[in-house]
Amino acid sequence: MPLAVTVLSAVLAVAFTVTGGAKAVGSRRLLDRVSYLPVGAGVLRAAGLVEVAAAVGLLAGLRMPPVGLAAAAVLTAQSALAVAVHAWARRERESPVAAAVRIPATYTGALVLLLACLHVWA
Prior knowledge:
The protein is built from 6 helices and no strands. With about 120 residues, it is mainly alpha-helical. It has one domain. The longest helix is centred in the middle third of the chain and has 25 residues, at about 65-90. It starts with a helix and ends with a helix.
């Protein structure tokens, strides 16, 4: 396994475990920050559980590359959906591009997509 895949998998696993864990437990601070979204707390908790499970998959992918690729694909899709929902919710206040630039999922999604590509090419 190339060093880039190992490092990127570990960093993203930590990031998604932290953010997914906060969503999964229903952190009041997080729920307050995303109160403008047109989804309920249950949807956010489910998204958090998916993030934590996929983070485990990223780490498992270091030994079983198909698992890592599947986890990266799930996180890429979830990040793209998160960007779309956030941009849609902010459509009255700013352009979709400006909203997407401010959303962390835009950048984590791009990194996960890069990781998926590295898995395929490795």
